[in-house]
Amino acid sequence: MGGIDFESSSPNSGNIEKESDVFEFVVKNGHGVKGLADTGLTTVPPRYIHPPQERIDRKDTIDSTPYLGPPIDISGLLELGGENKDEISKTLCAAAEKLGFFQVVNHGVSHEVMENAKRAAHIFFNLPREKKVPYLRENSPCPHVHYGTSFSPEAEKSLEWKDYLSMVYINDDEEVQKFWPTECRDAALAYLKSASKMIHGILSALLRGLGVDIDESTILSYSDARAVNMNFYPPCPNPELTVGVGRHSDLAALTILLQDDIGGLFVKAENKGWIEIPPVEDALVINVGDTLEILSNGKYKSAEHRALASTTRARVSVPIFVSPIPPTTIGPLPGLPEKHGKTVYRQLLFGEYKDNYFKGAHQGKATLDFAKVSN
Ligand SMILES: O=C(O)CCC(=O)C(=O)O
Ligand SMILES: [Fe+2]
To answer: Which helix (H) or strand (E) segment is 333 a member of?
Structure first.
């Protein structure tokens, strides 16, 4: 892992001692936290140090057994006339209700497709800065692709030890996809496409499992927009002082997360404590996002989660965020408030919810307050 190419970077590179220099170097000049890690620093700069209550310590986790079952084999859900469809659907609904996170196997995405997606993430983030800066939000040729670091650097007191690339997919419009970086376009598209059947199967099972009438076109409308993100957590000298991703719940209806073999994904279990979702070869992690919590009137949990960087290896994860498009109304499905005897969330546009979600720094589960009915 050599040093960074100071020649081609900013005028103040080579001197990133001051906090403002760190921000300039990592965020503004697009070196990312990868560029910072490559300088060979031995302690994280103050801007990366999180308050003690936000830091992640594996020793503080609680036993996952009551919350996280074994990976769920969903092959029967995806096959035509699959035998144990009902049983699988019930298992998925119970997991979405209990923790909001579960793992699936036999989901239709091949080992090769998953390996290629992770490899593409490593390839992209290992590119020289010059190849990545064209995708910074302010430079990006298309609103459907951007490269960045941390969640909302301008708004955050402490930054996340993470760079990411986000690629939005609406349909097979090659005009849009042609703006995705060539280094990861094919791998991201193959992953997205082979996950499609599983996404529909899981979303249908969860929505139908709510026990109210819902038609096929409504189910489909909640997954009209998909984004593949590639998260990159470079090796970190002090993972105990910083966070890879801070506490948040996802905006999406569903998230399909491909994590590598390093581990470090932690989920809050019913306010009892944090559990780690262990890497399982060929499994995908599925989690309920805020949108599905809202649609389900609070029955399914959009759990708070966060991620830890590793001292020795670069960790990658590749989530697919499955959402409606902005003009879609979200709110408890008709009939649910009556069934539950209460209305937890109001009806609002997904676009309104999204704008509020991205307004500032991560707020844990507080984002959901925006959609709560006022009492
Ligand atoms: O990297 C991970 O394991 C989690 C990433 C995550 O939570 C996200 O991208 O929303
Ligand atoms: Fe997340």
So the answer is: none
Residue 184's Cα: distance from chain center in Å? 17
**Ligand 1 atom nearest to CA at 255:** 10
Q: Under a CB-based contact definition with an 8 Å cutoff, are residues 40 and 3 in contact?
A: yes
Nearest ligand 1 atom to the CA of 317 is 1
- How far is the centre of ligand 1, averaged over its atoms, from the C-alpha of 238 (Å)? 19
Along the chain (375 residues), what's the average pLDDT of each consecutive run of 10 residues? 36 59 95 97 96 93 95 94 92 98 98 98 98 95 93 93 95 83 96 97 98 97 96 98 96 98 96 95 98 98 97 98 97 98 98 93 83 86
Q: Is the pTM of this model over 0.90?
A: yes
CA 304 / ligand 2 centre spacing (Å): 8
Residue 51 domain-assigned (yes or no): yes
Test site for ligand 1: of 254, 317, 322, most ligand atoms within 8 A of the Cβ = 317
In this structure, is residue 313 part of a structural domain?
Answer: yes
Task: Output the DSSP codes for 69-86.
Answer: -SPEE-HHHHSTT-TTHH
d(CA 13, CA 29): 9
CATH number, domain with residue 49: 2.60.120.330
Q: Which ligand is nearest to the CA of 148?
A: 1
Question: Residue 1: inside a domain, yes or no?
Answer: no
Q: How many domains would you assign to the chain?
A: 1
ipTM above 0.90, yes or no: yes
The domain in which residue 102 lies consists of 19-371
Q: Which ligand is located closest to the Cα atom of residue 303? A: 2
pLDDT digits (tens, 9 = 90+) for 266-310: 999 988 999 999 999 999 999 999 999 999 999 999 999 999 999
Q: 228 lies in a domain?
A: yes
